[in-house]
Design a protein that fits this description.
The structure holds two protein chains of two kinds.
Chain A: E1 5-7, E2 10-13, E3 19-24, E4 31-38, E5 42-50, E6 53-56, E7 65-71, E8 74-79, E9 88-95, E10 106-107, E11 111-115
Chain B: E1 4-5, E2 10-14, E3 19-25, E4 32-38, E5 45-51, E6 56-59, E7 62-67, E8 72-77, E9 86-94, E10 98-101, E11 105-110
Parallel strand pairs in B: 2-11
Antiparallel strand pairs in B: 1-3, 3-8, 4-5, 4-9, 6-7, 7-8, 9-10, 9-11
Classes of the chains: A mainly beta, B mainly beta.
Chain lengths: 116, 111
């Protein structure tokens, strides 16, 4: 398996532009997570899905952020409009929830977003 | 408000010695904890976990200790190797699969 795939790996955009980050989870995993990593706050969970349904979006900073999972093999995180304070590394992770608590999450390589 | 805290942003240890990374949590409902390791330009990878019914879990050079009364856990690496240089994240499980991470500690192993 190729692991969790994220694209793009790097994104540089100007304030006010729309940004779309993409994620392909590991086949067979039924949970998908979006995280943001910053120096100040470390790894923050933004939203997670179970069987393509959003379960908890309490970490989404504000209405400028939205996430979708149209099918089991694809998810997007969109920021519109983007702001300089959104600059961070965004990670997608997936896991199989059956049979356990806190099952190992497999992370993608991340997307480094820079908003100028 | 950080429910999981790693108060040391960085730690430097000599190769061959013991590395001890610390983590504190505030929510007494947390009952399962994990450590992840992260190299630059890569995503975090799972290292070791511990359930609250235990106070210790060991896997090779890595041991995690849990002190529930103090709401504190620690990761011991012995002996430390240069390849252990990375950022280490402590995480607590909330609910079934949701993880609450700390800010991370950057460990540097000096030859």
């Amino acid at each position: 398996d190729a692991g969790v795939i994220q694209s793009p790996r790097h994104e540089v955009t100007e304030m006010g532009q729309e940004v779309t980050l993409r994620c392909k989870p590991i086949s067979g995993h039924d949970y998908l997570f979006w995280y943001r990593q910053t120096m100040m706050r470390g790894l923050e969970l933004l939203i997670y899905f179970n069987n393509n349904v959003p379960i908890d979006d309490s970490g989404m900073p504000e209405d400028r952020f939205s996430a979708k999972m149209p099918n089991a093999s694809f998810s997007t995180l969109k920021i519109q409009p983007s702001e300089p304070r959104d600059s961070a590394v965004y990670f997608c992770a997936s896991t199989q929830g059956a049979g356990g608590q806190g099952n190992e999450q497999f992370f993608g390589p991340g997307t480094r977003l820079t908003v100028l | 408000d950080q429910q999981v805290k790693q108060n040391s942003p960085s730690l430097s240890v000599q190769e061959g010695r013991i590395s001890i990374l610390n983590c504190d949590y505030t929510n007494s409902m947390f009952d399962y904890f994990l450590w992840y390791k992260k190299y630059p330009a890569e995503g975090p990878t799972f290292l070791i976990s511990i359930s609250s019914i235990k106070d210790k879990n060991e896997d090779g050079r890595f041991t995690v200790f849990l002190n529930k009364s103090a709401k504190h856990l620690s990761l011991h690496i012995v002996p430390s190797q240069p390849g252990d240089s990375a950022v280490y994240f402590c995480a607590a499980v909330q609910g079934a699969q949701k993880l609450v991470f700390g800010q991370g500690t950057r460990l540097t192993i000096n030859p």
